[in-house]
Design brief:
Length: 210
């Protein structure tokens, strides 16, 4: 994905000085040369980043994990995600800085999810813990590939918290570090007080009822 993005990046100065104030949208436009395609890709990315594990979340809005027996999808969860995405998109009307901060936070959270997942695999491989059954495996090269992935993610994750330009002003400051730190503190407190008593971890084996 990173190689494809770099190949389709286009003029770096044009991306940094884009009139949209959102470089990733300019990257999409450079790659597709279509406003409609750019809109669709931006919406898909925002919906993907804003999607979260609503099951067991802080706000239980009418049991959002409910799956419609007619449509076979978690319709309430989709609706909640759509409302959150639309609300976030409206922030751009009032403050580009606030929207950039939320997008930066989404990027950091996405990298953090990769880091935790791959880190758990490395930990299990180093200590000889068995991995769950899977359809495809890297075999003996798995540990090397996982460590290489962590080495690749580390500088990206580190600089994702830094401002994009100097001198740093309130407008170009990367507020993701503040928001991420606040969310982490809140999450740890919430987990200690309630989450550890109600959280149900993912299952390894699923059995279909006959």
């Amino acid at each position: 994905m990173a190689i494809t993005m770099c190949y389709c990046l286009g003029d770096l100065a044009q991306i940094v000085e884009t009139p949209t104030k959102l470089p990733f949208i300019q990257v999409f436009f450079n790659a597709t040369k279509s406003i409609a395609a750019t809109d669709v890709m931006a919406i898909i990315m925002l919906v993907t980043l804003m999607s979260c594990a609503i099951k067991g979340s802080l706000f239980r809005i009418g049991s959002p994990m409910y799956v419609s027996p007619r449509m076979h999808i978690p319709l309430r969860a989709v609706f909640v995600t759509m409302c959150i995405t639309c609300t976030v998109a409206l922030i751009n009307i009032g403050s580009v800085t606030a929207l950039n901060a939320i997008i930066s936070l989404n990027v950091v959270a996405l990298l953090n999810s990769y880091y935790i997942t791959i880190g758990c695999l490395v930990w299990r491989r180093l200590y000889g813990e068995p991995l769950p059954a899977r359809r495809w495996s890297l075999g003996r090269y798995g540990l090397a590939v996982n460590i290489a992935a962590l080495c690749f993610l580390t500088p990206i994750y580190f600089f994702a918290f830094w401002p994009g330009a100097t001198p740093v002003t309130p407008e170009n400051m990367n507020w993701a570090v503040v928001m991420y730190g606040g969310i982490m503190i809140f999450s740890l407190i919430y987990y200690c007080l309630r989450g550890k008593h109600t959280y149900i971890g993912p299952v390894v084996v699923l059995k279909r009822d006959s």
